[in-house]
Amino acid sequence: MTSPTPDALLGPADVRELAAALGVRPTKQRGQNFVIDANTVRRIVRTAEVRPDDVVVEVGPGLGSLTLALLEVADRVTAVEIDDVLAAALPATVAARMPGRADRFALVHSDAMHVTELPGPAPTALVANLPYNVAVPVLLHMLDTFPSIERTLVMVQSEVADRLAAAPGSKVYGVPSVKANWYAEVKRAGAIGRNVFWPAPNVDSGLVSLVRRAEPPKTTASRREVFAVVDAAFAQRRKTLRAALAGWAGSAAAAEAALVAAGVSPQARGESLTVEEFARIAEHAPSKESGQQ
User: Fold this and answer.
1) What burial class does residue 3 get, using C-beta atoms within 10 Å of its C-beta: 0-12 exposed, 13-18 middle, 19+ buried?
2) How far is CA 29 from CA 71, 131, 135, 193, in A?
3) 233 within 8 A of 177, measured Cβ to Cβ
4) Which end of the chain has fewer CB atoms surrounding its CB within 10 Å, N or C?
5) pLDDT reported for residue 290
6) Of 109, 119, 59, nearest to 85 (Cα)?
7) Of 212, 234, 255, which marks where a domain is finished?
8) What is the pLDDT of residues 64-113, one digit of tens each?
9) Which residues are annotated as a binding site for S-adenosyl-L-methionine?
10) 41-13-11 Cα angle (round to 5)
């Protein structure tokens, strides 16, 4: 076998031992559930199609289970960790378990939502086990901030995975679905059982694959303008777009005019529209010249 020895990765005993040595107890506040199964992290790396020339950014590496599996394959891995204790310990874990790859690893001790630059070459892939409470904003922030990220695979709560990958017309299609689709082609990429985590969560997890579009939807509206329409449309998702966009447009009549101009039925609801249709509505925003969104 040419692959690194299995004991380079963290098993259940290793994770608990590391956590005990660091005095770490996974917190619900940060949505921490550490992966304790080497086969699962290798499966994530395979599903992400990580290549030997990839520069991977990982958000929320925790004790390093996925980090080590990524380092087996990728050219470089940069991990972004907010937790003081975990951030301080991770470089030592990498050096101890994968000394030959330690120079390929970088750590950024920060809140991912505040990261605007990363050390080394631009990232080509994002692979992460995202805490469910911040999964969507972190994902959208990283895709927006780092346009070099071509492929993304995130593990999130199953319900969040469904929302991200939902198509127009689905009951769970909403703001995350549309905004993720602005950047990428999105699809479910598998399910993850609860028993591969410590502590075992009381929800199932799912993998979501996002492959960046060659370019965003063609529109004269800015991303911010398009997203403002999306937010307004789903803020009152039971209402027709004529009613839901009244606040955004200034009145229901102005919303209707914008919708008709965009070729969208004023009686439609947000859950039936594609990201391209939202972009067309944004192009016809009333008083767009005066800066109204």
Assistant:
1) exposed
2) 28, 9, 13, 21
3) no
4) N
5) 40
6) 109
7) 212
8) 999 999 999 999 999 999 999 999 999 999 999 999 999 999 999 999 99
9) 33, 35, 60, 81, 111, 129
10) 20
Token representation of residue 111: 């809140």
Q: Over 90: is that where the pLDDT of 50 sits?
A: yes
| Judgement on whether residues 165 and 273 belong to the same structural domain of the protein | no
Residues 22 and 124 in one domain: yes
Q: How far is 254 from 4, CA to CA, in rounded Å?
A: 63
Domain boundary (158, 181, 212) is at 212
Binding-site positions read: 33, 35, 60, 81, 111, 129
Number of neighbouring beta carbons within 10 Å of residue 241: 30
> 124 lies in which domain range?
12-212
CA distance 37 to 42: 9
Alpha-carbon gap, residue 125 to 3, rounded angstroms: 21
Q: Distance between CA atoms of 248 and 236, rounded to whole angstroms?
A: 12
Same domain flag for 94 and 188: yes
Taking only the tens place, the pLDDT of each residue in 17-45 is 999 999 987 665 555 688 999 999 999 99
- pLDDT above 60 (res 264): yes
Tokens of residue 284, six digits = 């016809």
